[in-house]
Sequence to fold (282 residues):
Amino acid sequence: MPVDHKRINGPEISIPYQLFDKLNTKSLKTQFSEIVQRNGTRADGRSSSEHRKIFMKTGVVSQAKGSAYIELDQTKVIVSVFDPREIPNKTDYSSKGEIYCEFKFAPFSCHKRRLHQQDSEEQQYSAIMKQALESAVFRHEFPNFQVDIYAIVLHNDGSALSAAITAAGVALAHAGIPMYDLITSVTLAVQGNNLLVDPTLEEERLCQVPLFKEEQSDHGIVVLSVLATHEQISQFYQSGYLSYGCLSSGIEILTNATKDIVTLVQKCLVKHVIKCVRNVED
Fold:
């Protein structure tokens, strides 16, 4: 019987080639100083509050009721939304529908090959997605039913969770699921006095540990999801240590960043509607 080598991970005793890279021989503080220069400019030329260029498209999965594709430079995510179906294994009646979210990294999306089954990080991201989207959907419109949402990351270069939440909002609108408002999400990486909007994977890695001060220095990742028209926070997730002042200024920066994305989401949906109208006329 032939063996499917694509499903076999590398041996546990293998040594990652990244250990022999010149960049990894430097200290973490030196690496961060090279990525974020003293004038606030990052390695890719962006300022600390500047978002990467975003590309969105709807209708990329023909089998789904609604779908969306989003690119944040090298971060690429596809989200599919399917028709409401009865909640499985539920005996009592539910006046509000449910949302089922599954977040998954493709096996080839990261430096280290991912398994086909969900790991603890992916399960946590799925729960965060569900929490963010529940407040944006008219759940009372489909009682005793659930809407399935599947997000798969094709390439991870940072901010994958916030990209998936934004794309999920676009996919829900494309599927015709009744919603209170459009939802947008942005990630913020914190390292000392540096607040980096839409961090890359390398910036996220270097913001997970304190570098510039003693144990109580600000460091970590913040993911914020906002309902733009209502100006309400639908979800907030933080990892690491952040002081109150740093967290307050970070939320203000993220709120302004989410407003900039709303215009792109609206243009993407309007473009889809115009396309559908032209197809009907033809």
